[in-house]
Structures are given as C-alpha cells and as structure tokens.
C-alpha cells in the first residue's frame, strides 16, 4: 500500500520493463514501486536513458510493462484490455510532450477542440485559452507560435478533457531558461486552479524544488523517493 496517509491516486508496484532480445536486451525498469497522492506534484528526475519516459508511458497506458501493476484512482490499468486502456487515456489522462505534437494545419483553438470532442463534459475551451494566455493566438497555426505558446496550447489540449492526471514528459526540454520558467509557472497555476495530480519527468534537478514529491531514477531503479515539505514557487527557481 501507499506510504502516504491518504489513498494514492497513482500506485506503481514492482514495475519492470525491457526492450530487445538476446544480446541486445536492455532492462529499462527494474522492480519500480512508488505512489503519488491525489492532487500531488511528483517530479521524476534522472539522466537520459534512466527509464523516466518509459515509466511515464506505462502510467499513461501507452506502454505495457513486463511485470508489476499500476493502479490509478483505484483502477488497475495494467489489467485493462486495449479498449479499456483507450477509455482510460480518454477519460482520465492528459499528456504534455516535449515536442508538443500539435496538428500543424489546425489553429490553436481547433487543436484543443479536437480533444474536447472526445469527452462528454469538456472544460470551456475559450475560458481555458484565456487562462493560459492564448486569447489573441487562438486563430494562429502552430508554426506561427513561439515554443512557449505551442507548449501552452499542448497544456490546454491536455486539460480540456477535465483530466484528473496530467503527465508531462520533459515539458521544458525544448525551451530556453526564461520560457521554461514561464511554463513551470503555468503548470503551477494549472495545478492550483484545477487540482490535477501532476507527474512530470525531467533531467533538470532544479525543477525538483517545486515538487511535493521527488523520485530519482538511475539505470531503471528508484534511488530516491522523498517528500518535499517546503516546495518553492516556479518564479523562485534558478538554474
């Protein structure tokens, strides 16, 4: 069970994953176990190749582990059928990727609207764009936006479903320092406003200062899992 006093929103137990066979077999995750509280901000940090993105993809139902289990909001997603996983991703998970993955020939508003149409009760698109500072850019195409604006659009797209779990894979990895800080402030504000459980992977140790929980992966194993009793505001980070 979770080490936290409250029931875990995300609970990972004994997760293992490898790729390849024979001499090319690579063990990416080794017996990984941890939990994240509802509404928690968990930052998973580690060097490139440490297994961070593989772990995030498993939590998001994009990749299947070889062993172990993942429970999200009490549901064992590792036991779901392909159709069940599709429903899980649609109804509960918002993804924010390093390279945005926006549809290039759709405007900002249309990129968000496409995702909104997947669920019965999406958030108000215009309100979301306003809150994320995209009002004046709603009719622009991704190529007309800065990197930070594209990432804000990606966050709007992830949130519009009303997702209770937001998974961020190196969301500042393609941004300069100043824009990265702005992006972290946006995520901080999103967490405060919507109460979404946030799990972010990064190679940047400085970002761990704003988390409630810090997990460090090294060669596919957890070497640190600690609570941060005094998280710092994004605007206070320095790197």
UniProtKB/TrEMBL annotation:
One of its GO terms (molecular function) is ATP binding. SMART domains: AAA. GO terms for cellular component: membrane protein complex. The keyword ATP-binding applies. InterPro entries: AAA+_ATPase (IPR003593), ABC_transporter-like_ATP-bd (IPR003439), MacB-like_ATP-bd (IPR017911), P-loop_NTPase (IPR027417). Keywords: ATP-binding, Nucleotide-binding, Transport. Residues 10-237 form the ABC transporter domain. Belongs to the ABC transporter superfamily. PANTHER family: ABC TRANSPORTER ATP-BINDING PROTEIN MG467-RELATED, LIPOPROTEIN-RELEASING SYSTEM ATP-BINDING PROTEIN LOLD. This is ATP-binding cassette domain-containing protein. It comes from Raineyella fluvialis.
């Amino acid at each position: 069970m979770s080490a936290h006093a409250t029931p875990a929103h995300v609970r990972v137990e004994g997760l293992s994953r490898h790729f390849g066979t024979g001499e090319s077999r690579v063990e990416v995750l080794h017996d990984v176990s941890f939990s994240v509280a509802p509404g928690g901000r968990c930052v998973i940090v580690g060097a490139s190749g440490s297994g961070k993105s593989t772990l995030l993809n498993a939590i998001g139902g994009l990749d299947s582990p070889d062993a172990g289990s993942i429970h999200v909001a009490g549901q064992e997603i590792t036991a779901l059928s392909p159709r069940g996983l599709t429903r899980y991703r649609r109804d509960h998970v918002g993804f924010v990727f390093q390279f945005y993955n926006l549809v290039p020939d759709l405007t900002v508003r249309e990129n968000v609207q496409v995702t909104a149409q997947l669920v019965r009760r999406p958030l108000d698109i215009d309100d979301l764009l306003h809150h994320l500072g995209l009002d004046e850019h709603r009719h622009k195409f991704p190529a007309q936006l800065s990197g930070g604006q594209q990432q804000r659009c990606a966050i709007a797209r992830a949130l519009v479903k009303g997702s209770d779990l937001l998974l961020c894979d190196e969301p500042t990895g393609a941004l300069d320092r100043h824009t990265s800080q702005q992006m972290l402030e946006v995520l901080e504000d999103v967490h405060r406003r919507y109460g979404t459980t946030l799990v972010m992977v990064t190679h940047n140790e400085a970002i761990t200062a704003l988390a409630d929980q810090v997990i460090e992966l090294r060669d596919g194993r957890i070497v640190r899992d600690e609570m941060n009793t005094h998280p710092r505001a994004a605007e206070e980070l320095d790197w």
